[in-house]
Amino acid sequence: METRAHRAHRVVVLALAGLLPFELGIPHRIFGRAKDAAAGRPLYEILTCGLTPGRVPTDADFDIHVEHGPELLATADTVVVPASYELGPVHAEGRLTPELAAALAHIRPGTRLVSICTGGYVLAAAGYLDGRRATTHWASAQHFQQLFPAVRVDPGVLYTDDGDVLTSAGVAAGIDLCLHIVRRDHGAAVANDVARRTVVPPHREGGQAQFIERPVPRPQRSATTAARAWVLDRLHEPLRLTDLARQEAMSVRTFTRRFREESGLSPGEWIVGQRVERARSLLEQSDLPMEQVAREAGFGTAQSLRKHVQAALGVSPTAYRRAFRETGTGGGAAPAPAALTPLTLTSPDGTSVAAGSVH
After folding, report:
1. At what angle do helices 317-327 and 302-313 cross, to 10 degrees?
2. What is the pLDDT of residues 138-195, one digit of tens each?
3. What are the phi and psi torsion angles at 232 (to 5°)?
4. Contact 159, 167 (CB under 8 A)
5. Which helix (H) or strand (E) holds 26?
6. Helix, strand or coil, per DSSP, at residue 139
7. Is the dihedral of CA 159, 12, 62, 84 positive or negative?
8. Mean pLDDT of 94-101
9. Three-class SS state of 315
């Protein structure tokens, strides 16, 4: 019999009528791939329930059959509410139906709550988001804010993390949020392994823009992919914005503009984020002294490492390593990332850019 210490974290996904099959599958795909590296045990148990057992219509040309009713929510460590296009009074008036209210009443206090896209309407209508920062799909953000004025809606970000309540924008942002939760629970190595198996980017900051309106680029316009790949091989080295621009045969000004159009971040913000991820992996997987971690990650000094890790993760590098080691795989010890506060510098052509350790 599995001991409490080794019991998988139970994720219960609430399937509502009109659900989007893609988003319903995200928790199963991401959490279902997370395994203990040493023992190979699944780290999560993922189950699905409906308001009643049986048929649940989707927005596609097929329905799904759910074995469990809402009583399963009482057993959850985490509840995930994916998007639905048939929320009725939840979407129109901001109120729960009696059936949905009765289902949510099964959720135990302290259970972690997660929404994907318009699933946030359910959490907001239940009052879980009052006074909290939250997001939803950019096209619904204005309506969401009008319907739920007590919620602090951030319409531009991929996801928000308020500790025990997390929300995401639509579709792919749900993947980002679930990977973020795996990373928060079990560390970067486990999350990166899940990302590799799923063939998705291992990490996108929650504060990254979810929607960037711009014309479709002409085919002959260069992207900045080669520059990003070049940087990832050289994170431990001093990096100059002029060198990044040279990889794409662009001026610094043009490169900076294109980079932000494509990633939603400045080159400096993106590089700082990648260096924090490198430092995080080294803290989890090695016993290197802090000065060496700082050099390997590209921060140069332990003081710079401490500043950027503290800003990104909310704890010092030493505290992060200690928390990770004490729980074996992170165990949720690392808090939600805070917003990075990169430095600002001026490039040779007079363009100001957020820099971190970019020169």
Report:
1. 60
2. 899 999 999 999 999 998 888 999 999 999 998 889 999 999 999 989 988 888 889 8
3. -60, -25
4. yes
5. helix 21-32
6. helix
7. negative
8. 96
9. coil
Using the 8-state DSSP alphabet, how is residue 72 labeled?
Answer: G
Question: Can you read off the two tokens belonging to residue 350?
Answer: 């007079």
- Measure the CA angle with vertex 42, ends 40 and 45; round to 5°: 170
pLDDT tens-digit readout, 311-351: 888 889 998 888 777 655 444 444 444 333 333 333 333 33
Q: Where are the beta strands (DSSP E) in the chain?
A: 9-14, 44-49, 54-57, 63-66, 78-81, 112-116, 133-134, 152-153, 159-161, 165-168, 344-346, 352-354
Alpha helices by DSSP H, listed for 187-345, are 188-198, 225-232, 241-247, 252-263, 267-285, 290-297, 302-313, 317-327
Token pair 């950027």 is at which residue? 308
Nearest Cα neighbor of 37 from 186, 185, 162 is 186
Q: How far apart are CA 53 and CA 336, in angstroms?
A: 35
Catalytically active residues, by annotation: 117
AA identity, residue 139: A
CB 172 within 8 A of CB 20: no
Cβ count near 231 (within 10 Å): 22
Per-residue pLDDT at 275: 94
Bridge-partner residues for 73, per DSSP? none
- The tokens describing 200, both together, are 């998705």
Measured distance between the N- and C-terminal CA atoms of the chain, rounded to whole angstroms: 56
Task: Check if the beta carbon of residue 244 is closer than 8 Å to that of residue 253.
Answer: no
Residue 177: burial class (beta carbons within 10 Å; 0-12, 13-18, 19+): buried
Q: Tokens 């009583």, residue?
A: 71
Report residue 1 as tokens: 């019999």
DSSP state of 356: T
The pLDDT tens digits of the residues spanning 118-143 come to 999 999 999 999 999 999 998 999 99
Q: How many CA atoms lie within 13 A of 171 on its CB side?
A: 4
d(CA 83, CA 60): 13
Distant-in-sequence, close-in-space partners of 343: CB < 8 Å, separation ≥ 6: 268, 354, 355, 356
Report which DSSP code applies to 209.
Answer: B
